[in-house]
Amino acid sequence: MNRIKALGVINAVLHLALSAASVFLASYVLREGPVSGFDFFYIDALSAFFILTISVVNFAAALYSIGYIAKDAESGTIKEKKARAYYGLFNLFAFTMYFVTVVNNLGMLWVAIEMTTLVSAFLVGFYNSKKSIEAAWKYIIICSVGITLALLGTILFYYTASRDGGVTSLNWTEMASVAGKLDPNVLKVAFLFILVGYGTKAGLAPMHTWLPDAHSQAPAPISALLSGVLLKTAIYAIIRFTSIINICIGTSYSDRLLVFFGLLSLGVSAAFVVVQKDIKRLFAYSSVEHIGVITFGLGMGGALGLFGALFHVFNHAVTKSLMFFSAGNAVKKYKTSDMNAMRGVVNAMPFTGVMLIIGAFALTGSPPFSVFFSELMILISGFGQGLYLQSALFLLFLAIIFGAVIYHISRVVFGKKPSDVAAEGEPLSGKIAFIFLLVFTCTLGFKLPALLSGLMTSAIGIIRGA
Amino acid sequence: MPINIFLFLILMMAFAMVAAKRLTALINGFRAQSFFLFLLMFVLAYRSGSTELYVVAALLFLIKVILIPRMLHRVVKRIKVGEDLGLSANPTVSIFAAIVLAYLAYAFTGMITGIPAFFVSISITLIGVFIMIFRMKALAQIVGLLVMENGMFLAAASVSGGMPFIVEIAIFFDVFLAVMILGIFVYKINSLFTHIDVDKLTELKG
What we know:
The complex is a heterodimer of chains A (about 475) and B (about 210).
Chain A lengths: L1 H31 L2 E3 L3 E3 L1 H30 L5 H23 L3 H19 L5 H35 L7 H6 L6 H19 L7 H8 L2 H30 L2 H23 L4 H22 L1 H33 L10 H4 L1 H14 L6 H15 L3 H27 L17 H12 L6 H14 L3
Antiparallel strand pairs in A: 1-2
Helix pairs in contact in A: 1-2, 1-3, 1-18, 2-3, 2-9, 2-12, 2-17, 2-18, 3-4, 3-9, 4-5, 4-9, 5-7, 5-8, 7-9, 7-10, 8-9, 8-11, 9-11, 9-12, 10-11, 10-16, 11-12, 11-15, 11-16, 12-14, 12-15, 12-17, 12-18, 14-16
Chain B lengths: L1 H18 L3 H26 L2 H29 L11 H22 L3 H19 L3 H23 L4 H29 L13
Helix pairs in contact in B: 1-2, 1-5, 2-3, 2-6, 3-7, 4-5, 5-6, 6-7
């Protein structure tokens, strides 16, 4: 048993080191400009920003995994060998996500994103139950179909780049440099395939159907990774293609599509959040919502909207991870994820209960938490550009989701505790991951570190094709 | 002209797969389609004399004509499920639907480029999607995905003379890995549910 814990601690230290390295990398990129190597790797501010986000959530998930996996092994849910396999898969999954952000070649980007699906499918099906295998199957099939469409989009980008731009590689840097010469009609069709294809992986409605199943069946730390950063790697891919098409034909075409899919995702998730009974599915649909917010923000364009969208990428990553960790604790304790059976969490596990209710407010965009600020930026940008109807719908869906999430979670936290669930104290070691994430959620709205704001500001230039 | 003959045969194999009622017929259809795709690539390689295209054609033969069909046949044997494909649309309706899909592909590709290979590639991609949706066995979904993948391969070869070499290799590797992993999950589904009918995977809702 102690061996598993030791493995978990080593894993967490490794990911702490990776976080430190990514902070170093980010400040280097900000100071010296993009880093590239072997004509294969290319890291600019946009990549560095996503690397930083991934490393923060990975570290938190690694911390949380220590206790979570050890408990699973103690209770006999999984064997020791499987616990070791977990850490192997965890790191493979982390590696594939980093890989997405550092490759220059858009074909390799495609390969990397498919690899994230293949590796994480094993983590989704980790418990080998009927439900988790069903979820893993749907996940891998739906995302593979989606990503095949993204490949078609990539091929069409390459088609016009080689025919009209004379480029013979799929490198993003080269495609972007000839973007002005590309054929607008081919690009428009290609971008549609990219958006639907990678949008499937990002969890945009109506291609989101794999998402609630996969997020709810995976172990809680993996749910946090899936929701917090895996979806964002697909967003990253969409952004890379958006910047090429924006240079060529301006932003109005991509903006309209992004706003449409963003609002659709918000609407669909609002409907499902209201009627949800399962706590992990509730947060999964909330991920569809936040991906919608990010996409909407990207589509708003303008410096403020884009800044808000990127800021939201980070805020959602840390806040949603916090929620999946809390939900994971509660599900372990109550041995069900049905919210009707899960009552009085604050009595049974005071720390988790408090985190759940704070997190619910943070996640739904209440001040003073950071999600509020990024959503506000996007909203101001929307009204500022005169998109009143779209912005009003955006606000309406956010309000519905706010009400529904607070209603569900407050009943879970403050309801009457079932008598067969004993109250227990929680060890400090289990709380570190929560506090780490909570610090970001609480402070970023007031004091944005220069590194983060610098990265986002440079990234905006990249998205707008400057 | 052999190119156009191969293209025609590739498309016909897609129709044959849509009409198939049994798993083995479906897998053999895929193998035949991949074989014609290989012949097409071989002719392209011969014409251009490029070593890279020869390597791509050889890999195509190895992975899609030999390894993957063999593995799929083995899975069919091992899990002893019925051969029946679970058609939720009968062969006549399916063929009709496939013709409509091919026409849509024709109309769509005409907007971008008139290259016939591109038209065939989009047709079989759509037919692959059709197989995935209307055939209820998990294995049939894998074959549907592979047919889509063949379509993408043809698209890359037709509109841009093939993607850069390293990307082609990476995509091959990826497809192979995906099929392996899907095969593992078919075993898991079979052992947990004692069937591989995806329309009966309905534990997760809402």
